[in-house]
Design goal:
By secondary structure, the chain is of the alpha/beta class. It has helices at residues 40-45, 87-90, 103-107, 136-139, 147-156, 171-182, 194-202, 216-223, 239-248, 269-274, 291-300, 317-326, and strands at residues 2-8, 11-16, 26-35, 56-62, 74-77, 119-123, 163-167, 186-190, 207-209, 229-234, 249-257, 279-282, 308-313, 331-335. Strands 3, 4, 5, 6, 13 and 14 form a six-stranded mixed beta sheet that branches. The protein has a six-stranded parallel beta sheet with strand order 9-8-7-10-11-12, with helices on both faces. It starts with a strand and ends with a strand. It binds zinc ion (2 copies). The site of one zinc ion has 8 residues, from α2. The site of one zinc ion has 5 residues, from loops.
């Protein structure tokens, strides 16, 4: 099969590797659509990478034993290789599993883990079926499109009574706009790139604030009767945006971080948390039991279908990564057989 790899700084290409073979409850999926995520960062940084991607949509083509999926099933591919038996896994919170399975140990080869590939291998319980009538392309926003904000809003119980601030209008932040509007909330988006400002408005953001404006915080206050927003979600993974979320949220409000960030955020417990009564949490991906609800958003939101801005054949991996790195896009899809 063919898979895409990063060869060096702004260099990528396709290589041939052996097809994965099914084993025990691990099924082989023919990948029809690969939603692109943050892989472009390694391409920009020049970090060679042989196993790209964690999101995929496709069709089961081989199983080793009867189980939860059958050949021909249309499925989405959940990320990671969690153990399936620990407390977190059993509760559906498999993303927090501390006993992730090593492909190299289980299969004697790491091949089959990449999603930027024509085939991959996955435990059957991480291959939920795509509802009838939904295309592979529609299902492709199930992961780092709608997923992170879905779980954050579910946990914060965002509803039509709330004003929600969302910082960073990349694919995850734009997915946040879709989820927040689906729940009836009023949305204040924060973004500076014109393409993404326009995209947020197209998906229904009620207001978009430029974080570079010296009065950005005052603008949020003016829109919320001087109090601040009820909830805030950071999707940018930058410290200034995280700080903005804390400052812009009202007393007794909630802040959730879903944007990956390794920089230190300074929080002063008394003024930021105790005396504001603020709840600040991190959230990664979504509970597997919420998969049907995420599918409902895809089926019923009038704008969910607009989250994908571009589709490339995988043979044009260079152009696809170039576009992702430019930020002149929303969710970008690859077609590994084209
Ligand atoms: Zn586990
Ligand atoms: Zn992702």
């Amino acid at each position: 099969m063919k898979k895409a790899v990063i060869l060096g700084e702004r260099q990528s290409g396709l290589v041939d590797v052996p097809d994965p073979q099914p084993k025990e409850n691990w099924a082989v999926v023919k990948v029809h659509v690969v939603p692109m995520c943050t892989e472009y960062k390694a391409w920009v940084a020049g970090s060679p990478s042989e196993y790209l991607g964690h999101e995929a949509v496709g069709e089961v083509v081989a199983v080793a034993q009867p189980g939860r999926v059958q050949v021909g099933d249309r499925v989405v591919v959940m990320p990671q290789y969690p153990c399936g038996v620990c407390e977190s896994c059993v509760a559906g919170d498999y993303i927090y599993c501390e006993h992730v399975v090593s492909l190299k140990e289980f299969l004697d080869t790491p091949e089959g883990s990449a999603t930027y590939a024509q085939y991959l291998i996955k435990p059957d319980w991480l291959l939920p079926k795509i509802p009838a009538g939904m295309s592979y392309e529609q299902a492709a926003i199930y992961c780092c499109g709608l997923g992170p904000s879905f779980q954050a809003f579910e946990t914060m119980q965002v509803s039509a009574y709330d004003t929600v601030l969302i910082t960073g209008m990349g694919p995850v932040g734009l997915g946040g706009v879709i989820n927040a509007k689906y729940r009836g909330a009023r949305v204040i988006a924060v973004e500076s790139i014109p393409y993404r400002v326009d995209y947020a408005k197209k998906l229904g953001a009620d207001f978009v604030i430029d974080p570079r404006a010296s009065d950005a915080l005052e603008q949020v206050r003016a829109l919320t009767g001087g109090k601040g927003v009820d909830m805030a979600l950071d999707c940018s993974g930058t410290v200034p945006a995280e700080r903005f979320c804390i400052n812009a949220t009202r007393r007794r409000g909630q802040v959730t971080f879903v944007g990956e960030c390794s920089q230190e955020l300074a929080i002063t417990v008394s003024p930021d948390m105790i005396r504001k009564g603020l709840t600040v949490r991190g959230s990664w991906h979504y509970n597997l039991n919420n998969y049907p609800k995420v599918m409902q958003v895809i089926q019923n939101s009038p704008v969910a279908g607009q989250l994908v801005s571009h589709t490339f054949p995988m043979s044009q991996i260079q152009q696809a990564l170039e576009l992702s790195a430019s930020h002149q896009c929303a969710k970008v899809l690859l077609k590994p057989w084209e």
